[in-house]
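Hi L., both proteins are below.
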Amino acid sequence: MIKTVGFAMCGSFCTMQKAVDEMRTLSEQYAILPVMSQNVYETDTRFGKAKDFIDEVEKISGRQVLHSIVSTEPIGPKGLVDVMVVMPCTGNTLSKIANGITDTSVTMAVKSSLRIGIPVVLGLATNDAMGASGTNIAKLFNTKNVYLVPLHQDDPIKKPFSLVSDFSLLPQTIEAALKGRQLQPFYR
């Protein structure tokens, strides 16, 4: 039976296309349930128009994008996914997840998954990972059923506190998470 990946996207707009490309790769092996934060669902940026991302994601997944708290709440209780991915996961969303704040479609998708033991994989993209968000990374690194896609510095000179997940490692991170393991090495 084909496993289903919940694929939630937050507003690290500069990494959005990389995330969509990873979703496309995953769709060759998994069914995809797409989720977008309100910002991603509604905001046009210099990196692309919201409608274009929505259309592309819905074409890849064959499903409508879930983008409200009400639409994502049933994910866990109804067992709609086997693993929940958040990619890109911003520092803001990371902080909310680490501190139990559920006020967006993405944080509800994560909470809904964790409450019944579904593994959650976070693909971080944050400019303050080695600053304010660092404590939240450490907190989640030791949380049951939360797994992080390995990280690297994306621009150590211009953005010395920034870390981004190696998006190409998402498939391996999912496979490890489904077995209850964190993919290593964590920093590359």
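That was the first. Here is the second:
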Amino acid sequence: MNSGTISRHRLRFALLLGAFSALGPFTIDMYLPSFPEIAAQFGTEASMVQLSLTASLLGLGVGQLVMGAWSDVMGRRKPLLLAMILYAVASLVCAIAPSIGFFIAVRFIQGFAAAAGIVISRAIVRDVYSGHELTKFFSLLMLVSNVAPLVAPVAGSGVISFTAWNGVFVALGLIGIFLVIMTTWRLEETLPVEKRVSSNIMELLRNFKSLLQDRQFAGYALAQGIMIAGVFAYVSGTPFIYQKIYGASPQLFAVLFGSNGISLIIGSQVVGRLAHVISERRFLLIGLLLSVVTSIAVLLVVLFQGPLFALVIPLFFFVASIGMTATASFSLAMETQDRMAGSAAALLGLIPFLLGAVVSPLVGIAGEQTAVPLGIIILATSLLALLSFLGLARQPRKQAA
């Protein structure tokens, strides 16, 4: 194949995998503009609605652990197909939830199923690519999947502008059905039988143990996971901060929130385009330092009750730092993984969602009329991520000649 044909093939492949990878952001972001409406519908507090986000984050975390390991045993295609069927069903059940408790429970199942799209698509990337090609393709995948944070809240606000919040979950159910079709007709198996691992549960647990004992892998995984936990605090807090504190409409919130999808794209594409010039390790450090600086700016704005634009600008660059760190840390962590690509991708996905599930409800701990907890949380996560990288993922010593 000539270079043009190869480029088109890579783009089609990235679009296909990006559709599965984007399921997580759609599951999280699409219903954010309807938070106040859901609270009113069930007659509950904002913290209970935020708990539904926590449930989906837990599902996304646990689901990646299970689905990633299962895909190392069974191959990529079968687990993905079954998960997409479950996702479609769970989404439609969310639309008819009779109570907030039931809604929260089904959101966990929905997140669990969506996790397969994230973790298996990333394992497929490692099946096919390595080295700088892995970084370049993953940045292309990030370009595709990061459109989701742009589209999801705008789509969600569009849906609730002519129907109730339930319509968002009907739309998610239709997306699930579409992905069932795509898995059936378009996705080929990328993990040959001879490269699959044993289904012995003890061996799977030993795989996870060996990954966690690898200081380099653990450092990259923690740096990425803690940073993304800060993003989940941002995701959980901004619907109420923008709309309740600053009086933004659901449509303006969707535009402001969605614009940060652009910053994610910028961050990830800078890494992908310049990976042959600047090392992934250096990009990771730059991204972590950028997150610390911008989170300090956010905290100052909320402490002194600055205007909306003064809050939006540093948050834009904070999210851009996530694009940089997520792309660089994924490539660094996955580079040495082959037979355990699914398990490695699962841990890379599990850590941020578990931490995000813990952090997200803390944003509303002081009520709906203050944004100070958000500023504190994203600064704390930025500093912890930087310390994890510096403390664990040290540059390996060069061998003496």
